[in-house]
Amino acid sequence: MRRASKVAPVRRANRVTPVRRVSQTPSLAALPQPLRGAVSAAAALARERHEQIYLVGGAVRDLFLRRPVNDVDLAVEGDAAELAAALADRLGARAVAHARFGTATLELPGGARVDLAATRRETYAYPGALPEVAVGASIEEDLVRRDFSIHAIALHLSHKAPAVIDPFAGLRDLGRKRIRFLHPASPADDPTRAFRAVRYANRLSFSVPADTRRQIGTAIAQGAFEAVSGDRLRRELVLVFGEPRRAGAAALLIRLGVDRAVAAGLARAAQGVKERVAAAERLAHGREVGWLCYFLAWMGAVPMRALREVADRLGLSGREGLALGRWAGTRRRLGPGIARLAPSRRRLRATGLLPEEMLAAAALRSGSDRRALALLAAREAPELGISGADLLARGVPQGPAIGRALAATRAAREDGRLTARNEMAFALAHARRSR
Fold this sequence. Notes:
Elements: H1 35-48, E1 52-56, H2 58-65, E2 72-77, H3 80-91, E3 94-98, E4 103-107, E5 113-118, E6 120-123, E7 132-135, H4 139-144, E8 154-156, E9 163-165, H5 170-176, H6 186-189, H7 192-204, H8 210-221, H9 230-240, H10 246-255, H11 258-262, H12 264-268, H13 273-284, H14 291-299, H15 304-314, H16 318-325, H17 327-333, H18 343-349, H19 355-363, H20 367-378, H21 388-393, H22 400-414, H23 423-434
Parallel strand pairs: 2-5
Antiparallel strand pairs: 1-2, 1-8, 3-4, 4-5, 6-7, 8-9
Helix pairs in contact: 1-3, 7-9, 7-10, 10-13, 13-14, 13-19, 14-19, 19-20, 22-23
């Protein structure tokens, strides 16, 4: 097995020297309550315990960008679980420790969370492997394991005046609005960082500069993605399609070559992906739609063989695997001309399909066909005001005639040929004819 290049050690002094002055530190007052109170209490408690504590991760990035902060991560050069327990007592909160990982979660009243972790170092046995983690590192070693420079910024909270620690010029990259890895082998060590590069570039409207693209290309050429499990790849795709502006994210994945690194079947569908996913987004606007809708729109009109290859590579099972496996048949069932069918006939064609499948099929169509499929996905079959028991009470004998009468009545309601007040008369007439 190939070994990934080691992370270059950070040059160390007796204590971390901030590369930005305190005057440039964002105000913690921008944190929402109760997160602000929890962070202040954690900092005070760490000072009492003579421990070094830091605000790290996305919260620091978003404070500098003046974006909303919904959760915070704290790194401590010490026992995170012990600190979390003491902090929970002070705040009247609940602490859940994960001793194996050196982490703890503080569950605050009202549902907010603070994650605490002992500073750690990571190594990778080979490209694509999960990291081997060792706790007890310095903040420098903890920051060097991060994915991007914009996430390798820390606020040192153990003194009354917080200080910015920025050993990888993350603030400069925030200012230039770019996504940059900490070292060239980063995407080879963990290829899922390529997906994260796309997510953050898309979310923040940042660029992916040439060196970052080249490093991802090198990881692909080295076969690093082949060592990543299908489940991990699937989870990254779910995250990509779980954020707004999915069409742009899909297009960027293709430009970086991530599609062909995952599976050739994905790359075969690359033509027109941006347009199809954008159409699916417009159709799904205001609805609760899962990632599967956008992924099926990505797959477009690829043949069955490619669908099976992608399903196998991603380890899809359950409803997701079933939907991808039948996607070629779904496209035919919901093909051109479906708008010419009566609404009840369209629903019959879509029997057993998920709304995500219908919307994805609509994204492949145009005009009246697209509108008909979008409407089909949005509407449930009409509920009847009568039941089989009502027909039995009116003298219809037990048997298949009841089911056929109810189905015909529902179809007539959906097609607009029948009002609710006339359901019983229609069903009775149909049942008598079919006996």
